[in-house]
TrEMBL record, chain A:
Residues 338-376 are annotated as: Disordered. It is found in: Cell membrane. GO terms for molecular function: transmembrane transporter activity. GO terms for cellular component: ATP-binding cassette (ABC) transporter complex. This is ABC transporter permease.
TrEMBL record, chain B:
Signal peptide: none annotated. One of its GO terms (biological process) is amino acid transport. GO terms for molecular function: transmembrane transporter activity. It is a multi-pass membrane protein. This is ABC transporter permease subunit. One of its GO terms (cellular component) is ATP-binding cassette (ABC) transporter complex. It comes from Bifidobacterium pseudolongum. It is found in: Cell membrane.
């Protein structure tokens, strides 16, 4: 669906001659792809010096009932168990640190920021190896399992924390203003108005993150956690059919992840009625330190304009964790704001407060906004 | 503090990071090439190409990297006997690069596609109105703007790639950081926390500049509309 929309944008509705040519190229391409597939199969059937990889002798032990009951299903259960616990932990961790990064207290905010950025930058495998060895030295039970869970909680929890933060950042200012007008303090408004909406907004992206967690549990096989991958390797080394067992494991991983991805695509429309922040799952989940995201521009570009014409001007809501925007919670841009020409900024800020930030050059204004602000 | 010094004296930590950087460098180049091919296929008017590219992206996006790496060594090398070099180290290095590139290409394709989404409809309409065909409008009008729009997701993909290069341990690359870390912990369990901190901060130091540069570039190169 999306593909056809994008394509329709790039070329004209083909006429009869073009349609014919497209049909011809289409068939040629299809034949080339099929030929590549056949070549791979031939290579599998008759490798230079090895046995026929397609023979039933090799596939049978990878597919029969015993393989499922003794290897794949226990492995899948171990994978899902670690995923489930890691997701729960990550959501708790993410909520704690994500809210911690938003509350007014400077010390708490900075400590949370450092913890989150550290956990996002360290590769999960490095954390896993460390915790595995550390737990083994401390004589804790099942060190591999707990190291998988805790490493995934730390990394994905920090991503969830950023999702919470961006969910709050994406809410229209009016939500906070209304809460303040009702006499709530900043923290109260955060806890009872903004964060609950942010949670609904982040749900689809969190489900996308679930796929990442599930994929990353496979790292556990490197530290001898008996997950699906490890079990399939064991089975493969028993019957010397590792290629076949890995294919089966890959298919299982793919099916589970694919179902979760579909869920993540279906969720946004169902979450949108519960929040004022945009609920779309990001095309690329925020990964990096100072991750700038162009999701706003994507959203604007995707918007349907039935009468055509120029794009509408919006506040660029903060999405992802765009740390490049100094003081981002208080800053609202006009679409297309040019940093090098700050005076071209539409007057969204109070005239008296029109001083600019030294390091970023962005104009800023007190929060909540007073005076004649231009709203969307 | 003494622990840190003795660790740096007895183990060559920078060399291990260099291996990861090399893995990242080659995989970044190959996955960029493959990703660009995939995204052009993905937006082309040829439906079979579109389907194949979409299938590729969907397959590798929903597949753990670890299983790809294990597959490269135990499947492609050990069972299909495909190898790049007689030297085991070089061979595993390139197998890991292939695995990383195949995996990352799917994400490069998605990043570029999200960049294409930032190009307003009017640009393509104008290109068509001027009589440019698909390849012309793609290479002259859409892609230059899309590349600028996808700097941020591409930077994220690069950072993820650098972190993923540690998974090369699953492809038997024994000289990279996570393998060296296991080895160091094996011999010096008394300073395990210091060992972890060395590698953790090594990655923090490598990743922060990429993040800063990405942010700078994506602001600098953003198409003002």
């Amino acid at each position: 669906m999306a593909a056809s929309n994008e394509s329709a944008l790039l070329f004209d509705q083909p006429g009869p001659r073009m349609r014919k040519r497209i049909r011809v190229i289409n068939w040629i391409a299809a034949i080339v792809f099929l030929a590549v597939l056949v070549l791979i199969l031939v290579r599998l059937y008759n490798p230079p010096d090895g046995e026929n990889q397609l023979s039933w002798e090799l596939w049978k032990p990878a597919l029969d009932g015993e393989a499922w009951s003794d290897f794949y299903l226990p492995g899948l259960w171990a994978t899902l168990r670690a995923t489930f616990l890691a997701v729960i932990g990550a959501v708790v961790f993410g909520l704690l640190f994500g809210i911690g990064r938003l509350i007014p207290n400077v010390v708490v905010r900075n400590v949370c920021a450092v913890v989150i950025e550290f956990c996002r930058a360290v590769p999960v495998l490095i954390m896993m190896i460390f915790f595995w060895r550390a737990f083994a030295f401390l004589d804790l039970p099942s060190p591999a399992y707990w190291s998988v869970v805790i490493s995934l909680v730390l990394y994905n929890g920090s991503v969830v924390a950023e999702l919470v933060r961006s969910g709050v950042g994406n809410l229209p200012n009016g939500q906070h203003e209304a809460a303040v007008a009702l006499g709530l303090t900043r923290t109260q408004s955060l806890m009872s108005v903004e964060v609950p909406q942010a949670i609904y907004a982040m749900l689809p992206a969190a489900v996308t993150q679930l796929v990442v967690v599930l994929k990353d549990t496979a790292l556990g096989s490197i530290i001898m956690y008996t997950d699906l991958l490890q079990e399939s390797r064991r089975l493969g080394s028993m019957y010397f059919d590792i290629l076949q067992t890995l294919v089966v494991a890959a298919v299982i991983y793919f099916i589970v992840c694919w179902l979760l991805s579909r869920l993540a695509e279906w969720l946004p429309s169902h979450m949108q009625k519960r929040t004022l922040a945009p609920t779309e799952a990001e095309p690329v989940a925020p990964i990096a330190i100072m991750d700038p995201s162009n999701a706003n521009q994507i959203a604007v570009a995707r918007e349907e304009r039935p009468l055509g014409g120029a794009q509408r001007t919006y506040h660029v809501h903060h999405r992802g964790s765009n740390a490049s925007i100094h003081n981002w919670r208080r800053t609202r841009y006009a679409q297309g704001f040019d940093e090098t020409q700050p005076e071209s900024q539409i007057q969204v800020h109070h005239r008296g407060m029109g001083h600019t930030d030294q390091d970023s050059g962005h104009s800023r204004f007190p929060y909540p906004r007073k005076g004649k602000g231009k709203r969307k | 503090m003494d622990g840190f010094l003795s660790l740096f004296q007895s183990y060559n930590v920078p060399a291990a990071f260099l291996v990861n950087l090399e893995l990242t460098f080659w995989s970044a180049i190959f996955s960029a090439i493959l990703g660009i091919i995939l995204v052009v296929m993905r937006i082309s008017p040829i439906s079979s190409m579109r389907r194949v590219a979409a299938g590729y992206v969907e397959l590798f996006k929903n597949m753990p990297l670890t299983i790809i790496m294990v597959f490269m060594v135990l499947g492609v090398f050990a069972q299909l006997k495909i190898s790049f070099s007689d030297n085991f180290d070089t061979n595993f290095f390139w197998l890991a690069v292939v695995g990383l590139s195949l995996y990352t290409a799917a994400f490069v394709c998605e990043s570029l596609r999200s960049g294409i989404n930032t190009v307003p409809l009017g640009q393509a309409e104008a290109a068509r109105a001027m009589g440019l065909n698909f390849m012309q409008s793609a290479t002259l009008i859409i892609m230059p703007q899309a590349l600028r729009g996808s700097v941020a997701p591409l930077g994220n993909t690069l950072i993820a790639l650098l972190k993923n290069s540690t998974v090369a341990a699953a492809a038997s690359v024994a000289t990279e950081t996570s393998s060296l870390m296991s080895e160091m912990i094996e011999f010096r369990p008394d300073v395990i926390v210091q060992i972890f901190l060395i590698f953790a901060f090594g990655y923090v130091i490598l990743i922060i500049p990429i993040g800063v540069l990405t942010t700078y570039l994506s602001n600098k190169l953003a198409v003002r509309r």
